[in-house]
Amino acid sequence: MLDTRISRRAMLMGAGAAAAWLASPARALLQAVGKVQVPAFVDPLISRMTLEEKAGQLSLMASAWGGGAALSLNPPGNGSDFEQQVKEAREGLLTGVFNGNGARMARMLQSAAVNQSRMKIPLIFAADIIHGHRTIFPVPLAEVASFEPDLARRTAEAAAFEASGAGIDWTFSPMVDVARDQRWGRGVEGGGEDVLMGRLFAAARVHGFQGTDLGSTEHMLACIKHFAAYGAAESGLDYNVVDISERRLREVYLQPYKAGFDAGALSAMASFNEINGVPSTGNHWLQTDLLRGEWGFQGFVVSDYTGDEEMITAGYAKDGRDAAKLAFLAGVDMSMQSGLYRQHLPDLVRSGEVPQALVDTSVRRVLALKAMLGLFDDPFRRIDEKRETARSLLPKTRALAREAGRKAIVLLKNDGDLLPLPRSGKKLALIGPFAEGAHDLVGPWVVYGDDAKAVDLATGIRAALASPKSLVVAQGSGVEQPLSGGIAKAVAAAKQADVVLLAIGESANMSGEAQSRTEIVIPASQQKLAEAVAATGKPVVVILKHGRAFALEGAVANAPAILATWFLGTETGNAIADVLFGAYSPSGRLPASFPRRSGQEPYYYAHKPTGRPNPPGELQPYKAHFRGIPNSALYPFGHGLTYGKIDYSSLALGAPSMPMNGSLQVAATITNRGTRAAEEVVQLYIHDRVASITQPVRELKAFRKIALAPGQSQVVRFTVTAADLAFYGLADKPVVEPGTFDLWVAPSAEAEGLHGSFELVA
Ligand code: BGC
User: Fold this and answer.
1) pLDDT of 480-538, one tens digit each?
2) Fewer CB near the terminus (10 Å): N or C of the chain?
3) 61, 72, 74, best to mutate for ligand 1 pocket (most atoms within 8 Å of CB)
């Protein structure tokens, strides 16, 4: 079962389409999208190419346009001079560039390639379109909080619409690395800690970026990254090694990549990390045996930024020549940024170390994809200066950003129903480094978005208030440094107010690539601010800014209301105001568990029981817990409150047992006993009590997002089949074993909800 059906209303909103797709018979048909068609002209073209030109088709470089995005995002490497890059295009030494500077730049380079090079092969233009192009949507992790894969499909589609209008053919997205250690900064780009969510959002994003026709000028090629297990970096340190069993690799980390390829993604990016001693970029088992052999992937694989060259420092390759050979023979078709392929592949072929036929195969893949993108028909099809402006930041795209923003917000706590706030009649103090100003709005991994075009929190709140004058703003603190006199001013502002809104957390550059943190806490200067503000005794609503789950402490954890608001992008202030004042009843659920302390990391809900779990309640000696801290989350995966009062009752299983080839019906009644409309995410978890391989305490198998008016009840139904109960067995194959299974229909991964059990009989 992949039962993520949704309410009729949610269906009308389009939610869950990607989820349904994964389970549907249409899947087989759509998989045709994952097939590469090689046009008849490609092989004759390859036969006329020199080895240097072939290596050129396998060499991708950061755009060298002066002051361009590529140069500021990544350290300048080879070919950092634009004139030189145009010359390379003319000489056929370049397959394309990434993170360039829009249609004008692309036109200059493309003209050189198609008008002045010998083979006239068009360039491909790539970019990190991670969560939007000019209109920036919530960071990918935040979007998962919506529990609406179709929302991610729609934002990816909108991003493709804007970006393809600006000349971009290929996005380095989606990033689908499962991230179970919140110290790792790049969790912000992915699908969170859960396997099912990782799969659903990977597939949805691929559908959004690619559409059904790669040749469309409103879509672009997706790239599944980082293959593989980049998110399993030891101790959450970015770029660190991964030492992992094949079982865990297959059951957890590989799943979202596979879902992305099944959804039709036709490119992949090799990851920086090694797996069990072999760098992914040089890993033949991974890039060829598994990816192409077992999974049937037909697209091409690109290295990550200088990933091939980094095998030298990692102690796997002797020198650049060796690195190029190892990466290429492993199955990495294209080299990003090191220039090693164009430097060494021709000679490696001449010396017989690399078979010419393999090079031809890689070139064929790349040219076939360029053809599928329509570049041979019209190399300028996505390069259009007018369209670039005309498609940028359209009202309908901004409206989607606002919808995505409010659906990504998670209400962690709401003691005494402090939220929603009235629009008038109360004085509000908005305090904190993220209260106002054009900074930290679009968030990490944004190449073309602009904070200045985004709505900050103060602006969003003022627009929602009956009288903007009822809001006072005080910065209080810097992000990581105190602000002289800041706390005194903030306390004075709090004292004048009825309610304090405390906007604290991480800046954009504290999560993302290379931003691992040892302590996943609110920075000290802001924690001090929070304590001082709380000491005024005024009710505090904490509004968190973050790219990861936090360990909340002290006055922040104790505040009566807490909202997880991530980096929401262009419509940040409006989306948060919608939730604060009740225009939208929060429906987001955590895609990653908030631990009690940093030291619990990696903490994830689907952990194994161990032989000595601490029973619920008091901490017991010689049980699995930390000193003074239970091994549970402060706010677990799946947690999120609404403005309704949701009640779970009447769990009914169709039968006490289920045969291997049968199914089990599960039903539960969900009621809104509150006075406000709400959307509830009803989650189904299963645990296999006894198995030949120990099983996680719970695993999410399905969910439904339902809308409930005040007083309304709805019976939510799920269907369990044996496929939901499979695991990777001792014989390295999926198995299903008879026995007793626990089942919960619950509002989060650690809430008791409704608990039942059933027997699976052989
Ligand atoms: C990142 C990739 C990204 C590439 C190109 C690398 O540093 O790991 O995710 O796509 O740069 O910008």
Assistant:
1) 999 999 999 999 999 999 999 999 999 999 999 999 999 999 999 999 999 999 999 99
2) C
3) 74
Positions marked active-site: 304
Instruction: Identify the residue whose tokens are 């990696």.
Output: 602
* pLDDT for residue 25 is more than 50: no
553 pocket-lining for ligand 1 (C-beta < 6 Å): no
230 in contact with ligand 1, CB cutoff 6 A: no
Residue 411 has phi, psi (to 5 degrees) of -85, 105
**What is the CB neighbour count within 10 angstroms for residue 535?**
11
SS (H, E, C) 629-667: ECCCEEECCCCCECCCCEEEEEEEECCCEEECCCEEEEE
Q: Could you tell me whether strands 59-62 and 335-336 are parallel, antiparallel, or unpaired per DSSP bridges? A: parallel
**566 within 8 A of 443, measured Cβ to Cβ:** yes
How large is the angle between the packed helices 356-372 and 320-330, nearest 10 degrees?
70
Q: How far is the CA of 518 from the centre of ligand 1 (A)?
A: 23
Hey, how many other C-beta atoms are within 10 angstroms of the C-beta on 710? 14
271 phi/psi in degrees, rounded to 5:
-85, 160
How far apart (Å, rounded) are the C-alpha atoms in residues 319 and 646?
Answer: 62
- Point out the ligand 1 atom lying closest to the alpha carbon of residue 272: 8
For ligand 1, atom 12: residue with the closest CA: 128
What secondary structure does DSSP assign to 467-528, as a single string?
-GGGEEEE--B-SSSB-TTHHHHHHHHHHH-SEEEEEEE--GGGSSTT---S--S--HHHHH
Output the CA 235–ligand 1 centroid distance in Å: 21
280, amino acid identity: S
Whether 674 has a pLDDT exceeding 80, the answer reads yes
Q: Whose CA is nearest to atom 10 of ligand 1?
A: 172
Does ligand 1 have an atom closer than 6 angstroms to the CB of 578? no
Task: Encode burial over 337-372: b for 16+ CB neighbours within 10 A, e otherwise.
Answer: bbbbbbbbbbebbeeebbeeeebbebbbbbbbbbbb
For the chain, give me the number of helices (H) and strands (E)?
25, 28
Smallest CA separation from ligand 1 atom 2, residue = 304
pLDDT in tens, 546-580: 999 999 999 999 999 999 999 999 999 999 999 99
Predicted pLDDT at 27: 38
pLDDT reported for residue 71? 66
* Position 73 confidence tier, pLDDT thresholds 50, 70, 90: low
